[in-house]
Amino acid sequence: MIDLEGIYKNESVEDVLLHFAPKTSYPSIDRMYVRYNFDVVGNAELHRVWGRLMDEGKLAQDEKGRTIKGPNWKEPAFVTEKKYFFE
Question: Are 57 and 74 in contact (CB under 8 A)?
Answer without folding.
Answer: no
